[in-house]
Design brief:
The complex is a heterodimer of chains A (about 120) and B (about 250). Chain A has helices spanning about 15-20, 50-60, 65-75, 85-100; strands at about 10, 25-30, 40-45, 75-80. Chain A is α+β, with helices and mostly antiparallel strands. Chain A has a 4-stranded antiparallel β-sheet. Chain A starts with 9 loop residues before the first strand and ends in a 19-residue tail after the last helix. By secondary structure, chain B is an alpha+beta fold. Chain B contains 6 helices and 12 strands. A 5-stranded antiparallel β-sheet of chain B has the order 10-1-2-11-12, covered by helices on one side. A 5-stranded antiparallel β-sheet of chain B has the order 5-6-7-8-9, with helices on one face. In chain B, strands 3-4 form a two-stranded antiparallel ribbon. Classes of the chains: A alpha+beta (about 120), B alpha+beta (about 250). The interface of A and B includes residues 33 and 73 of A.
Chain lengths: ~120, ~250
Amino acid sequence: MLKLQWSKLLPLNKEIIESIPSASGVYRLSYKSAEGAVYVFFIGNADKSLKDAILSHLSSSETNVCIKTYLANLQCFFKYAEIKNDEERKNCEKSLYVHYSPKCNINIPSGNIVDVNFN
Amino acid sequence: MTLGIILFAKNNSIVIVSDKRVTEGTYSMSAHGDLVQKIHKVTERCGLTIAGDAGTATVIIELFLKEIQIELTKRKSKNLPVADAAELLRSVAVEHYTKWYKDMTMKEWVDNVKNNVIPFFRILLTGFDPDDKGKLTKRKIIEISSMRRFAPVNCTVSFSTIGITTIAQYLLYRFYTENQEEDVVAGLGAFCIQETSSQDDGVGDEFQVASFSQDRSFQFYDDDQLKKIKNRCAELKTELQTALFMKPKVKEE
């Protein structure tokens, strides 16, 4: 099993994202529903910097309209885990994608499904 | 301008949703405020919402509510059939319109309302009528309009709308079913108001909600309940906006 060290659930805002590492890793974007439950709408793979990858979703250059819609309408959050190894990161991205079936991932990740912890 | 909605929900409950907008001015220049109480409690098992000339409607409702109290005292009851309440409302409204604006033929009456000589407003009244055993269990929505000299008209479906209704009617015919949970129905009603507000300044995006059922007294939603409904509206809007985005498909081979 691939044991990941997940961050806490953090509010998706610039100040918080600025404080996270510039390391490579995987992350997920989520929103809080009216009932209080949190649902994942995007899984990301940051091959260089988690900070830059997550910040890019808040910038005007974000091209994913689905993510933009969630960010515009709802209170959003994120979680991340650092992973240095390329293959492990891709596998982890695929496993998270299969588990959460996120609405806003346009492409299917290329890795293999592996056993991984989600929290 | 206004949007008021009454919807039936699960467990014989009734939900009333309305915006709070007051508009002053003309079509070319108008000012808005989200301040008006458009939902009124009639009894523990009866409520109403108004559209049109809110000032006149409120005066008539105050007079009507006094008559309701007298009627409840006479009957030694806390509730009365909604059809009886509608008849009382008609009687109070016609009496005072006649006193204020003199007796008129029906044609004069309609012409005067159409030409804004006498005020136009509509009321959706809802509550329960007696079943075969005389128990107040049969939900009903009754529309009363100054245009028809306040003659009560029964609504034949499980919801009704007054005011700027086009978008709400579309959304309700598309997504509403009678046996949904009350919070879902209230969310849909509020969503109708927010969607209409996004297209028409005449309807405000601030809303109020009240509900009651055969077993539960009339109650306005508190701030926490309204906040939850606003969140649900934001989710619903997001789900609809992203509904057309294609999810990746996986080939069989």
